[in-house]
Amino acid sequence: MRSGFSRREFLRTIPATLAAASTLTAQESKPRRVRKGEMVYRRLGRTDLMVSEISLGGSPAPNEMIFGRAIARGVNYADTSETYEKGNSERKIGKMIKGRRDKFYVATKCHPRRLKPPTPAGIIGMAEASLKRLDSDYIDIYMVHGASKPEHLTHEAVLGAFDKLKKDGKIRFTGASLHGPLANMAKLLVECGRYDVMNIPYNMYSRVKVKKGEKYDDYLQRSDIEGVLALAKAKDIGVVAMKSMAGGNFQKLDKYLTGGTTVPQAKLKWILENDAVGTIVSELLNADILKENLAVVGTGLTRRERQALYRYAEATSSVHCRMCGTCQEVCPNGIATTDIQRYLAYHDGYGKRTLARRSYAALSRSAKALRCQNCGACEQACPYGVSIRQRLRRAERILA
Ligand code: SF4
Ligand code: SF4
Fold it and tell me: Which member of 22, 46, 85, 234 lies 3.0 to 4.6 Å from 31 by CB, making a disulfide possible if both were Cys?
């Protein structure tokens, strides 16, 4: 097992780390983190790629000007998918990294379960289409998009196709973005030994739960995601944190501001405290968001910021879905409760109203909120006290 910083050691040594420019443990071929100019780079597990602490989310990809600024400020990793903007996200990213391909890392994703049935040839075809859109000879990390069931990670066709793509030099590393019952899926990804990287929803709500006046700190020890991240670190799997804004960039947060630090910045700092995390995929959609994100690089949470963040989490806990998938599993009527929570987040927090409505429209009739029988089983099962039925009604009102 590789040795590394504990969280406390990491926090204590940030200034020294940055002053010394790098840290290197005995077994690792590369430092865990290194500062170059304005950016701090972290080693992405066994890929050995040194990726910027903040990286670029491709859904949607930013315009050329923002993308160019991000690269100039040291961002060297983008996360996209064949489906983002119907392939245009890959095209935009391919265009922007032309001439600097060897200095920029791209992760993109495929949807094998859309093939009926999934076959190695079909998945290889998906990778080749992505390569064409990216205008590149290789993909740095090729991922299964939105794996929410064990077979999404372990299907023979997926594993066979990924092996062949690696052997042919078309992809360098493999990974998956995880949805559904996260702790179980993440454990499977780590333990099956076939993947190098995981994209996992990870944000500060992972720490606080408020229900009927009770407050639990660090409830991740219950959901086991924190444990899974520690396991990933021990097995040297690269961790990419997604859904970092936990509710989005577009919420009204003014009353929780902490001096010079905004709530979104505090959320990012909270994630970066965990040194299992290699990078945070962030939606760098405009110059303000880019500036706000990059200002957290190489910094840590102050006590005041942590307190403000917790106040914010307490106040918003009952409307914030953590995408754990529990409610969807227990609904006797097959309502897509978790998916619907996600579409509401697109609408309310991320400014993606069209995507929210389109996604809701794509659900089968029987999975829509309208078919809810109001039995309450989902709310009883939700570990976080989310007012699911109220939110389903809202979804039907604003997304249908
Ligand atoms: S209240 Fe509605 S969504 Fe929730 S479990 Fe019952 S039928 Fe499913
Ligand atoms: S509403 Fe609750 S149970 Fe359902 S996915 Fe969100 S956090 Fe999990």
Answer: 22
Dihedral sign for Cα atoms in the order 16, 20, 26, 28? positive
Q: Specify the ligand 2 atom closest to the Cα of 382.
A: 3
Query: Distance from the CA of 363 to the center of ligand 1, in angstroms?
Result: 16
Listed residues 301, 334, 357: the one ending a domain: 301
Our count of domains for the chain comes to 2
Say if 306 falls within a structural domain: no
Q: Which ligand is nearest to the CA of 331?
A: 1
pLDDT, position 322:
76
Pocket of ligand 2 (CB under 6 A): 321-327, 337-338, 341, 382, 384, 386, 388
Does pLDDT of 6 surpass 60? no
**pLDDT confidence bin for 120, thresholds 50/70/90:** very high
The answer on 362 and 228 residing in a single domain is no
**Domain co-membership, 209 together with 113:** yes
Same domain? For 210 and 337 the reply is no
How much is the pTM? 0.80
**Nearest bound ligand to the CA of residue 338:** 2
Quickly list DSSP for 183-244: HHHHHHHHHHS--SEEEEE--GGGSEEEETTEEEETTHHHHTHHHHHHHHHHTT-EEEEEST
State residue 26's pLDDT score. 44
pLDDT at residue 64 tops 90: yes
Query: What is the per-residue pLDDT for 203?
Result: 82
Range of the domain at 216: 7-301
Residue type, 336: A
Residue 127 has pLDDT above 60, yes or no: yes
Does residue 267 sit in the same domain as residue 191? yes
The pLDDT, as a whole number, for residue 323 is 77
